[in-house]
Amino acid sequence: MRLLDLLHRWTGGLIGLVLALLGLSGAILVHKESWIALPHAGDALVRDPDAIARATAKLLAEPGAQSIVYAGDRFGLHQLRTGEGAGLYADQTGEIVTRWSSQWQRPELWLFDFHHHLFSGDAGETVIGIAGLAALLFVITGAILWWRTRRTFKFRLLPKRLSRPAIVMHHRDLGIVVAPLLLLSALTGTMMIFRPVAETVVAPFSGYGIVTTSLKAPKVKSGPLAPRLDWAPILRSAHARFPDATIRILALPRKPGEPITIRMKRAGEWLPNGRTTLWIDAQDGHVLAARDALALPRGAQVFNGAYPLHAAKVGGLGWRLVMTVSGLTLMLLGSLAVWSFWFKRPKPARAAQRPVRA
């Protein structure tokens, strides 16, 4: 048990600050649709394919246009990505509301980049995945260590004082209360970063490897991107294929021979941008392949539920508040763990001096 205690404390002291910052940034991002104060951000969602097509044509005529993330139920603006960190927001008629040339000009963008990549791309994402695995370890070992002292349990939102014993008691007792939420946050976050973790979690539903197999893009060959595509029939055909779905993302090909990709969200999907996908020939607009997310194997559908649970994209305001509690608690536990470990460590006892004989 002493070895377990040492492992828990040292790992927390080393990685607690990363977890604290991830918890705080996650709690803020859960509510980003509410605090992005831009004109038309609260507009009702337009579902008419022809109106969406007109806005699409306007936006994709912008220099450097790469992809569109369409307005949703909680956010009434389209987002066009035009380059490395650059983009714009437009209303649902295609009229531009604001532009940016760098992600640092939009707080929701750099905050998202920090929470997902620590401003360091793939390397930062790997660090976050390791932190997620450490968080899983903390929950499990913390529950084991708490069991010894369960009779002294006292629930407090904050420690009684900033002494090491008070912080340790608060950390232990608050941690066991929110352990299920922390476990869910850590597990779903790690599933999205490390595919083997995701495959292991969903293996009981459809077998190991089903996520990779199910979500692999089909091998299709597209013609070159036409300079002026008629988007109306393309989007009408997409809605005709999945009548209950809303269009969420349209991505232009990055290389010659790649198709246009359209992601849609069917009524039964939790994933905010959906996983129902169509691959469109970039030259004439006909459908090359289609995937219905609700027809995927059970394991793949379980995986698709990880992000909506993690980011509170399902369950309404109630679940957003629950995940806010999870993020703020992680911030509190992580920061106090670092403080108590590095700045409130007990001083080593001095060796007793032997009397000198005359």
TrEMBL record:
It holds the Pfam family PepSY_TM. InterPro entries: PepSY-ass_TM. PANTHER family: BLL7967 PROTEIN, IRON-REGULATED INNER MEMBRANE PROTEIN-RELATED. This is PepSY domain-containing protein. The keyword Transmembrane helix applies. Keywords: Membrane, Transmembrane, Transmembrane helix. The chain crosses the membrane at residues 12-30, 127-147, 174-194, 317-343. Signal peptide: none annotated.
